[in-house]
Amino acid sequence: MQTRAIYTGSFDPLTNGHMNIITRAARLYDELTVGIISNPSKVPQFPIEEREIMIAEALRCLPNVRVDHFSGLLADFVNRNGFNVVVRGLRGGSDFEYELQMAQMNARLFDERVETVFLMTDPQYSFISSSVVKEVHALGGSIDGLVPEAILQRMNEARENK
Ligand code: COA
After folding, report:
1. Domains, the chain, ordered by start
2. Long-range contacts of 56-61 (CB under 8 A, 24+ apart)
3. Is 140 helix (H, G, I), strand (E, B) or coil?
4. What is the Å distance from ligand 1's center to 10 Cα?
5. Does residue 9 have its Cβ closer than 6 Å to ligand 1?
């Protein structure tokens, strides 16, 4: 059976913490889609179409990874597109409660073939979130090594054009 996995998030921006999960998941599954969600509870720095371009650029070196975007219920997107694995990253205990609730709720909504699978984030990235990276960068701090080079370039351009 072909394993078709999806890794979702707002990715505003994509960080090296996300990259770590994506690279490892790409080795585990035949095909991995990075699914960018338009999350109505967050005001993004980069519009979803721009995030899609930035992320595709950062992931160019991974041949079995593609990028897509969606809105609405994750389970609808997963069921409709025939994914059989939903990958989630766990940075630490504080992620666990939320992820457990989401996985259990999603399990009710997913087609029977779909499993949520958790990968532990590499500890060197466990303190990162998109918001903290964005805040430090906006205030002129260094985020070298925390986001892929292609993303950093776009963030620098956006800051200069402000
Ligand atoms: N490395 C670095 N940062 C990470 C990370 C990792 N491995 N894993 C998570 N993060 C960060 C994210 O960047 C994000 O940072 P931010 O809050 O500053 O933007 C934060 O941790 C939370 O990540 P996540 O839980 O993935 O939130 P998200 O907004 O990126 O994505 C969805 C949320 C898409 C997974 C979830 O809201 C969803 O599925 N929504 C669809 C609607 C739906 O189906 N709802 C019912 C669910 S039961």
Report:
1. 4-160 (3.40.50.620)
2. 57/150, 58/14, 58/19, 58/148, 58/149, 58/150, 58/151, 59/22, 59/34
3. coil
4. 6
5. yes
Q: Is the CB of 74 under 6 A from ligand 1?
A: yes
d(CA 20, CA 125): 8
Token pair 């699978």 in the structure block, residue:
117
Q: Whose CA is nearest to atom 28 of ligand 1?
A: 9
Mean pLDDT of the chain: 96
Neighbour count for residue 124 (Cβ, 10 Å): 12
pLDDT digits (tens, 9 = 90+) for 11-42: 999 999 999 999 999 999 999 999 999 888 88
Query: pLDDT tens digits, residue range 83-112?
Result: 999 999 999 888 999 999 999 999 999 999
Q: Can you tell me the distance from the alpha carbon of 63 to that of 51, in angstroms, rounded to the nearest whole number?
A: 19
Cis-peptide into 13, omega within 30 deg: yes
